[in-house]
Amino acid sequence: MAAWPLIRLIPRSTHFRFVRWAPVAAVISVLLILGSGVSFFTQGLNLGIDFKGGVALEARTPATAPIDLDKLRAVAKGTGAHDVQVQGFGAPNSAMVRFLPTEGGNATLEANRIKAEIVSKFPGMTMPAPTVIGAKVSGELLLGGFKALGIALLLMLGYIWFRFQWQFGVGAVVAVFHDIILTLGILSVMQIEFSMTSVAALLTVIGYSMNEKVITFDRLKENLRKYKSTPLREIIDLSENERLSRTIITGSTALLALGGTMIFGGPVLFPLVFTMVFGIIIGTYSSIYIALPIILVWGLKRGDEEAKPVKLGAASRP
């Protein structure tokens, strides 16, 4: 199999001093977290219909007549409905139309009016009775979504704690919370809609971030056994230089795939893909500048007092 031609642009050996920039990265992270907190308290998250409540209408056409989603979206918005969302629902001849009812109005009457206007523009289309999502149900969905995030986080962190030393667990805990806070922060700052798909994206971000931590810790653990008397900061630099090419290849491949979807996927997919793209970037950053520096601060007892330097130029692509 022919090698990817651009792989020649990735150096076989690097000798970056990652630890040297850890204090600067820590200041940047603290400022970003503070900014996220300010955004949470001033404008909050832009909750979607899933979490605010609303009306859902399922549209169906004959199997031989797929629904034109762009036309359906334009017609639905033309009815005067607020915060209209239109997306495919299963088969090509099925779609879901969601909107927020007018405050203080009768949601059922408004849904029937909008339903009638849409059906009149699409011959053969049928719509079952509308589904009204109340505030109580939407609140339960929001709580359930964050519970799912919490359970996933606890399970992954428990694995890290079990497999590595407790210092690694602390580093992973802080780094993943850092990733979640900053991801929610940018969604709040940019007022990107936060819905159940955003929860799914956050779960993916947690999984990717945790995977990066495991790979980082595995390489560090291997070098800790290999260089038993070398200063910890030098082993951290060596380990990150050894896995740098792997990080570049996997990260850039994921970003290229998601980047195309983010640009051409339309407004329905944008919140999901944007969250994943930002999560991949911040997850890679936190593996190097949050998880590892915390391990360095806490230190590891290795039973050696002598320190033998290691040449970073010896690091090679795995």
Automatic annotation (TrEMBL):
<feature type="transmembrane region" description="Helical">
    <location>
        <begin position="168"/>
        <end position="188"/>
    </location>
</feature>
<dbReference type="InterPro" id="IPR022645">
    <property type="entry name" value="SecD/SecF_bac"/>
</dbReference>
<keyword id="KW-0811">Translocation</keyword>
<keyword id="KW-0472">Membrane</keyword>
<keyword id="KW-0653">Protein transport</keyword>
<feature type="transmembrane region" description="Helical">
    <location>
        <begin position="21"/>
        <end position="41"/>
    </location>
</feature>
<comment type="similarity">
    <text>Belongs to the SecD/SecF family. SecF subfamily.</text>
</comment>
<comment type="function">
    <text>Part of the Sec protein translocase complex. Interacts with the SecYEG preprotein conducting channel. SecDF uses the proton motive force (PMF) to complete protein translocation after the ATP-dependent function of SecA.</text>
</comment>
<protein>
    <recommendedName>
        <fullName>Protein-export membrane protein SecF</fullName>
    </recommendedName>
</protein>
<dbReference type="Pfam" id="PF07549">
    <property type="entry name" value="Sec_GG"/>
</dbReference>
<dbReference type="InterPro" id="IPR022646">
    <property type="entry name" value="SecD/SecF_CS"/>
</dbReference>
<feature type="domain" description="Protein export membrane protein SecD/SecF C-terminal">
    <location>
        <begin position="128"/>
        <end position="299"/>
    </location>
</feature>
<keyword id="KW-0812">Transmembrane</keyword>
<dbReference type="InterPro" id="IPR022813">
    <property type="entry name" value="SecD/SecF_arch_bac"/>
</dbReference>
<keyword id="KW-1133">Transmembrane helix</keyword>
<keyword id="KW-0813">Transport</keyword>
<dbReference type="Pfam" id="PF02355">
    <property type="entry name" value="SecD_SecF_C"/>
</dbReference>
<dbReference type="InterPro" id="IPR005665">
    <property type="entry name" value="SecF_bac"/>
</dbReference>
<feature type="transmembrane region" description="Helical">
    <location>
        <begin position="276"/>
        <end position="300"/>
    </location>
</feature>
<feature type="transmembrane region" description="Helical">
    <location>
        <begin position="248"/>
        <end position="270"/>
    </location>
</feature>
<keyword id="KW-1003">Cell membrane</keyword>
<dbReference type="InterPro" id="IPR048634">
    <property type="entry name" value="SecD_SecF_C"/>
</dbReference>
<feature type="transmembrane region" description="Helical">
    <location>
        <begin position="194"/>
        <end position="211"/>
    </location>
</feature>
<comment type="subunit">
    <text>Forms a complex with SecD. Part of the essential Sec protein translocation apparatus which comprises SecA, SecYEG and auxiliary proteins SecDF-YajC and YidC.</text>
</comment>
<dbReference type="InterPro" id="IPR055344">
    <property type="entry name" value="SecD_SecF_C_bact"/>
</dbReference>
<feature type="transmembrane region" description="Helical">
    <location>
        <begin position="141"/>
        <end position="161"/>
    </location>
</feature>
